[in-house]
Structure formats: structure tokens, C-alpha cells
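It is worth pausing here to work through a concrete case rather than discussing structure prediction in the abstract. The textbook approach is simple: state the sequence, then state the predicted structure, then interpret. We follow exactly that order.
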Amino acid sequence: MATKKKWSNLILSATLIASLLAACGNNGNNGDSGSSSQNATSGSSSPNAASASPSEEKIEPLTLTFYSEDVNPNWGNYEDDIGKVLQKKTGITLDAEFAVGDAVQKSALIASSGDYPDLISAKTSISKFVDAGAVLDLTDLIEQHAPNLKKLFEGQMNRLKYSESDQSIYVIPSYDGINHQIFEAGGGMQLQHRVVKELGYPTIRTVKDFENAIRAYLEKHPKDANGNPNIGLSLIADDWRMYIGVTNPAFLSTGGSDDGEYYVDIDTHQVTYHFRRPIEKEYFRWLNHMNAEGLLDRESFVQKYDQYKAKIATGRVLGLIDQKWDFDDGQKALKAEGKLDQAYGHYPVTLSEEYKHTAFWPTGFTGGSGVAISVDNPDPVRTIKFLDYLASDEGQVLVTWGIEGKHYNVENGKRVIPAEVNNRKVNDAINFQKESGIGNYVLLSGHYGDGVKDSSGNYYTTRFPEQLISDYSDVEKEVLSAYGATIWKDLFPKEDEFKLKPWGALWNIPIPSESDLIVLEEKLKNITWKRIPEAILAKPEQFDALWDKYMQEIEAAGVEKAEQLRQELLNERLALWGS
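Step two, the predicted structure:
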């Protein structure tokens, strides 16, 4: 392999410690970087042709370095089934580096290094690369070499533009699928199936219902079969997961949509640091009460993520407030051991019945986070054609369904996952992903969302109601049936119960690197991450005084200025998107 790039050396040690992936090296291309004559990434639109033999034309191999802020411990280094097909189809492989630890800090380090990976997926940190002049404007590359991407984003090109003042396209959005419909309710609050079954399927609608179910089950079963104490509710607060497991649920369960650390009024578009909403104080008061009652895991604010997942895998944790993608490794371990009644159901729990859980509040296509091509990329034309192939019908089916005849079959014109393959996907998910590559490549390029059908009448993705149901265990189906539902989404308020957010999501708007907002929000985060756990773990009689102190501290730290700057970003987004 050629000499490693400087940026790789900056983050190599962290990656090796985490045992994630091979460090990003320089690409192995032969120096003919400007030529596109060797490309075989034309983007066939045949949805069932993923396993077809590659072109007879010789395809020169090209290795591109790739950096992503999101971790992927199941990445197969292109040795998985799909990776091998992509190599044959395109000649391109990715030498991938996934952030470990503070991803935002790592992105800042790379952006300031002056030596960049060939492909960059930096989420909202992309602004650091834009300001450093590190990424290419993709407008002409898309127009000239990417017919599938043009087709995919037809009518949405405004949402690919960076800002009102800089209307370049720096990123191929990949975190939000076009025309995406959410079918899976992976959030809300979670209870083990055995809890609701034993209690006769009580109504689980408010935090009081949730609390009562946990208390009643613990009173009957304080310990597991091995004599270890069962745990009522465990939270995850390790690093950025503080957002997912502790702070975001405060607005989701009190009528706020997900706009990161801010609440945006749907009618007035006014921006407020969401912790300043008085009703959220009452949500955190409830967590304080859960702690005082002995129903909250004492290790919630000290446990590391691996410890949290391992604890879930023991089956002792009755309740969670998290997202499925975050706790699912622990749940998968339970399923692999046949402990199906200790897996979790998802419930639309809010502070009181006057609020609707906002998990399905529609945003429209949000654009934003995705993949950029750096100025150091040796062959931007071939790279955009690679991304274009992934956005073709053939490419999308390949990365989401897998290889026909191995991961799915076509029966009477419909793609069907064989029972034995589906069993592995559900009950041996980690190993299956590593071997097959399904799930490893979707975020590399633009794609249609769940619920969209291709020209053959099949869904582009495998996440649609019929397939979700086939993934459920008999225990899960029994619980859903008892609640009059077929999928968990049936229990939640539907999209049409909310107004469409014309700005997408506020958290998805990049912050200019010179903005005072960066420093302000870091200050606010540090205060919040200190004071929220302190308030939750305090004696109930101390809660109000601690909350007042927290409010005073964020005011002194400039929360109103932060709100003003976020308001300006929101107003610019609304203008850019034509609202």
C-alpha cells in the first residue's frame, strides 16, 4: 500500500484502539487520475441485476480514502458479499476510517490539516471543510456525469445547496432518503414484553403509566432467575448519547419536534433553547422522582456504552428511553439466546395525555448530511460516477436487498427474503451484516427512502410493513395484537396529525466555522450535561433550586444570543428553500 496520508496519522491510534477498521491510506491508482475512460459505473437501472457479471471492459482498480463521523463496527473492509460485487462493478474500493470518540473534534482536526481523505461524510461538520476549501462544488459533476443522481433529486436540488449566500452543492445527501416514509417506531419508551404480558397489557400512554408498570413488575420480580436484581429504567448518557437517551426525550414527550437542542414553534418559527420550555422542567422532575423511588438505574450517568449494552443483554433491564438503533445490539443478544419476552416494545409515552409523541413529525426531504468529494480526490469524475451507480436502481437494490439468489429471490415478480436468510438478519444480525455487507453502503450516496417502489413494483428497501412483521417474533406479535396493532407505528400519532416542517430539521443546518454559535453552544452543552444529571439525581426537595441555578447559568453563558444566531440560520434556510 502506498504511504499513508498525514490526516490518517492524526487519528490512526484511536482507530486501532477501538479495533474498528483499517487506517485510511492513500489510493492505489496508477496516476492516470484525470481519465474517465476506464469507468464502468454507468448506472444500470435494472433492479434485479445486482448479481450480473461485470462489464467485459477492463476496469482499473482505484482505492479511495473515506472518512465518516459515524462509527460502523460491522464494516467488512470490502470483503463482504456486497463489497466484492461493488469492486467488480466499479473497480473502486474504500479505505475507510470511522470516527472514534469526539467526532466533531476529529473532523475539525482533519479539516485543519490541509490533507484530506478522498470522500468525506462529516454531517454538519462539513462547514469546517467548506470553509477550509477542502471539498468540491459538485454541481457540474452531477450535471455532466450523474444521471441517476439528477433523476433521484429532481425537484429537490434547492435542498442540496449549501446556503442562501453560497449555493454550491458540496454534499450528496445520504442520511435522508427521497420520499421517505417511516414505518418502524424505534423510539418512544421501551418496556420488555414480559412486563406488559404479566400485567395484563395495561395502557402505556403517559410517564405515570410507564412508571406504574415498572414498579408493579419489580414488586413481583425484584430479582432474575439467577438472583441478580432486576433494574427498572436504565438511561444511556455516555458522551453524545446524552442527547439520545436523556435530553431529546424531554421534547419528544412534550410536543416538540426534533430540531436538536432547540424548539421551533411550527406557526411562528421562533427558536428557543428547548430546555427553557417550562414543561420540560416537569419531564426532568419526573426522572428525578424515578430516581428517588429507586426505579432508575443508579449507574445511568456513569456507565459506558458497552456496559449499557451488556446490561441490556442480561435481560435485567425492564425499561429504556432510547432509540432501537442505539440499544439493539443488547436486544439482539437476548434474541440470540431465545429470551424473546425480554426484548422490547415501543410505546408513545408522553408527560401527560395532552401531548402527542412526535416521533413521526414529518420534515420532508431534509438534504444536509451526506458525502462530499475532497479537493485531494485523484479522480472526481470516476468518483461521482461511483456515487451515481450507488444511486441507480441496480445499486440501491444491491446495497439494501443484497444479491439475488443469495440474500433474496424473485417470486412472481416480487423480491422475497428466504426464511433462513431473514432468521439470520434478525437473530444473528451483527455477523450477518459483516458477512453480507447489507447496511454498510447505504449512506455512501443518495437513495430513495422506505416505502418507495421501483419500476418493477418492488420496494427499494426492506423496511416496509409486511417485512417488518416477518421480523417480529411470536411474542412480539402477541403483544402487538393485545394492543390492537400490527406494527409499533400503529400505536403512535401519525404524520398527518402534524404540520409539515418547511425547514426540515434545524440540527441539520451547518454552522459557519467563524460563527460565535460554535463557542456558545459548547458552553451551553457543558452546562446542560452537568446540571441535568445533577438535577435528576438530587433529592426531590432540591430539584427546583438546582433547576433555577441551571437556568441562570445558561442565561449568563449567552443562551439568548445562541437562540438569535440559530434563528438567523433558520430564516436563511426558509429563504433558500422557498418558504
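Step three, interpretation. The domain at 6-26+40-180+367-444 is CATH 3.40.190.10 (D-Maltodextrin-Binding Protein; domain 2). The first helix runs from residue 6 to 18.
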